[in-house]
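Key result, reporting period 2: structure in, sequence out.
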């Protein structure tokens, strides 16, 4: 089958993706494909992507450190902002040590194969992010997937397994459903069955837990012992990059073995310099998180009667990710297009990102949204559904 035939097949199934051209900085009001829209598409949960203090820090970082890092940190040097962000992040999440990566995807691709390899065993939630799925494939370990949040099946898999090294993988906040993994119960299983637990906290870091310290902190946990936490810096932190935190011995091992940290050009120090300011804003951002929770409650209250009337399903999420499951690909695209026609952007998510028959609008809220913008979205969906 030619590539043109493959593309035609995707189009016929309503599965073609497209990148819309953003003509303004990330924010609740943007220019998309040349037209103004109210955006519910971003993971900029605290509104820090264009925050004046972060922009000023980035400008200062550029003047002090230039644009690029020049080489791998193992060749061209580990710049002070990179050292400082690792120290600050470890302290912030309560871990002994942290390691910085260029992206969350690269972090997972480096961490997982460094922790589990050929003849080892990995146990992964079926709804984990694509980066964890790809990391498992890269590791060459035996792959055991358990139904979403089904800890009974997971325990059965663990108890029947005799691999030398065992690793449990889970999202903390699942990116397409917005629900939260039961980390204390997962950690209990890891400790009982002599396994490691790696948690991808891309969508919880900065939003959940005291001072936004993440999903582990939300449950009163800290990275360490059997618990290893990966967090990203391109969502609530408003920049780009990622980190992994845990006991010093674990991070020391990853420094020696995580290929996506070793064999890539270092993160630009100017960006890292800006992220230091982002972490300060996250720590002091309780008011932003309270406002975000208020918006979540307002949206859910407005959407509930619409879903009851239409048969759409509002996922039971308490996080900033609020999916509305419509079902069919074409029906979901039609609703998304109708929203765009009304100047509102809420992306349509279709297979293979989500299971067949579960296409949805993925509504992402930010502390930079206001109550009237939530009401505008609800009113538009009510009109479309009528």
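The corresponding designed sequence is given below.
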């Amino acid at each position: 089958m030619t590539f043109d035939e493959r593309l035609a097949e995707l189009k016929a199934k309503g599965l073609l993706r497209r990148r819309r051209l953003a003509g303004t900085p990330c924010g609740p009001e943007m220019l998309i494909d040349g037209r103004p829209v109210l955006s519910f598409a971003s993971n900029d949960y605290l509104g820090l992507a264009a925050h004046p203090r972060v922009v000023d820090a980035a400008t200062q970082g550029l003047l002090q450190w230039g644009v690029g890092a020049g080489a791998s940190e193992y060749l061209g040097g580990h710049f002070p902002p990179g050292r400082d962000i690792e120290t600050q992040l470890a302290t912030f999440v309560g871990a002994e040590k942290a390691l910085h990566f260029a992206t969350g995807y690269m972090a997972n691709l480096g961490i997982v194969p460094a922790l589990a390899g050929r003849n080892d065993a990995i146990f992964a939630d079926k709804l984990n992010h694509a980066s964890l799925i790809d990391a498992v494939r890269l590791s060459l370990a035996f792959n055991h997937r358990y139904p979403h949040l089904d800890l009974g099946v997971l325990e059965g898999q663990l108890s029947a397994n005799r691999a030398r090294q065992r690793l449990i993988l889970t999202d903390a906040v699942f990116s397409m459903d917005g629900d939260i993994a039961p980390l204390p119960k997962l950690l209990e299983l890891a400790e009982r069955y002599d396994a490691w637990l790696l948690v991808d906290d891309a969508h919880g870091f900065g939003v959940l837990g005291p001072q936004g310290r993440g999903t582990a902190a939300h449950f009163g946990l800290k990275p360490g012992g059997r618990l290893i936490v990966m967090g990203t810096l391109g969502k609530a932190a408003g920049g780009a990059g990622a980190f992994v935190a845990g006991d010093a011995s674990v991070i020391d091992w990853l420094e020696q073995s995580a290929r996506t940290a070793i064999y890539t050009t270092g993160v630009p120090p100017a960006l890292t310099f800006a992220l230091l300011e982002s972490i300060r804003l996250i720590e002091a951002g309780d008011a932003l998180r309270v406002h975000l929770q208020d918006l979540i409650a307002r949206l859910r209250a407005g959407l509930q009667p619409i879903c009851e009337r239409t048969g759409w399903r509002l996922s039971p999420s308490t996080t900033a990710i609020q999916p509305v499951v419509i079902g069919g690909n074409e029906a979901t695209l039609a609703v998304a297009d109708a929203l765009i026609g009304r100047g509102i952007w809420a992306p349509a998510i279709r297979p293979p990102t989500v299971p067949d028959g579960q296409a949805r609008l993925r509504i992402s809220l930010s502390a930079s949204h206001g109550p009237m913008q939530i009401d505008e979205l609800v009113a538009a969906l009510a009109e479309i559904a009528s």
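The domain at 52-283 is CATH 3.40.640.10 (Aspartate Aminotransferase; domain 2). The chain has two domains: 18-46+286-385, 52-283. This case is discussed further under Risks and Mitigation.
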